[in-house]
Write a structure and sequence with these properties.
Blueprint (H helix, E strand, L loop, with lengths): L1 E5 L14 E6 L2 E6 L17 H17 L8 E8 L5 H11 L7 E6 L10 E10 L2
Parallel strand pairs: 4-5
Antiparallel strand pairs: 1-2, 2-3, 3-6, 4-6
Amino acid sequence: MQVTLDNPATVAEPVGPYAHVARLDIDGGALLMLAGQVAVDDAGEVVAPGDPVAQAERIFELIREILAAHGATFADVLHIRTYMTDMDDLPAYGSVRRRLFPGTPPPASTTVEVSRLFRPEAVLEVEVTAAVTTK
């Protein structure tokens, strides 16, 4: 078993002092635990302040890139944890998720409403856990 903390070169640096992903390599595969992602551009600026659809789309672009850097796709996602500043945005966010995760059943999920996120313009933060086979 080996643990690696990684910031893939194909993805902009994190907006804080952390790794984008913790990877736990085990016999025949790996467990990927992605840090919470917010909708930022390559300069670290929040994309579409206040817009849950645009932010969800950007967040999942970042997640797709981080997963790809480790040989994984959305099909490998086991769990999605979402932090929202307004639960009224759930239908808008859900429309993006249903498009990206059309399978039945979708990944396990936890959604939590929070009073604020570390970037005031952000309305969503999403973290995922994925499993990928290496053999």
